[in-house]
Amino acid sequence: MKPFARISRRQFLEISAAGLFAPSVLASSKAELSVVDLCGRTVVLKKPPQRFVVANYILNFLMVSGAAGVNKIVGLTQDGWLETRRAEYVLLQKAFPQLMTRPSIGGYHDSILNSEKILALKPDVLLINRTQYEDNTQRIRIFEAAGIAVIVLDYHSMKPEAHAASTRILGALLGCEDKARAQCERYSEVLADIKKRIAALPETKKHVKVYIEAGNRGVAEYGNSYNRNVLWGAILENLQAKNLAADMKQPYGALDREYVVGGNPQIIIIAGSLWENSEASDLMRMGLTVDPKTAQKRLGAFARRSMWQNLDALKTGRFYGIDHGSLRCMMDYAFSIFLAQALYPGVFDDYDANAEIQGFFKTYLPEIDAKGTFFIRLAQQ
Length: 381
Hints:
With 381 residues, the chain is of the alpha/beta class. The protein has helices at residues 9-17, 58-65, 81-84, 86-95, 115-121, 130-135, 137-145, 160-174, 177-199, 231-238, 257-263, 292-303, 312-315, 333-343, 353-364; strands at residues 25-28, 33-36, 42-45, 52-54, 73-76, 125-129, 149-153, 209-214, 224-226, 242-243, 252-254, 267-272, 287-288, 319-323, 372-373, 375-377.
């Protein structure tokens, strides 16, 4: 399938029937805008918003708004941004230096919001995620009483309908409906095709045992894995894989070494990013600005973990690295492509996951140099 191909009317109707284009914008006019956010709350704005505090999903915002959206941002979460998503921070700083001069209203990777700063900035809209909404009930009442429209987005659950609804909301708020619609179409087209192809496979080809781990604690300590409802776990669920952490009670957490070894996964995936002190440590490195040689070296260190050499994943060479930092945005359908290729060899060879990422940046945020390593398979040791 060619990247960024347009979908037919028939395909669009099939996708719509599946609920991937569920209404998120109730009404839109020059005078008033009404949206239903990702917590099911109807939010009405009397005029198109011009001042935004982006407490989450800054890259999503910019991929819909383009460069012009930077001037609409009056505040964002910067505390810990450099340490948590170094490549994203550095590249956005280079492309839009004025963005980094905006006041920080909280932590990039937590749910803390600074009420005083947000109120002082007088935004028309405050964009938050589900966790921030749940953890700031009293603050949100204060913001709304001050006339700030608080809108919840959700790219964490990895549900296609949540991705689409969040993007449609951004498109409506920013006056970029066509761009948002195009992103939703490609996202939904690819996932619908993947689902259709997997459904046609015999059951004996499905339910491959997979272990996925965030490699942000290094080789010696096991990092987080994810249950079937969130992030990588939700993607694996959609792909009908047998995720070792699927039934974990909490959304994410580290699995015991004995449990992983006893489960004998057929595929192992180590997710990486540019986390704090990643240069001087053995944390898994993947994503923007990371070269393949570095990624391979880090992945090889994980492959040499104690008691892993006899696992099926190592014996068959089905051992992979994947970029954790680029998850939670509309281009992350490319990760479903890559994982589907790993799970079902030969079934998805007409896709090029890396080309999808490069094409997405080129189309929607060309100011960013999207060079990096987003997917790798362990080279023979």
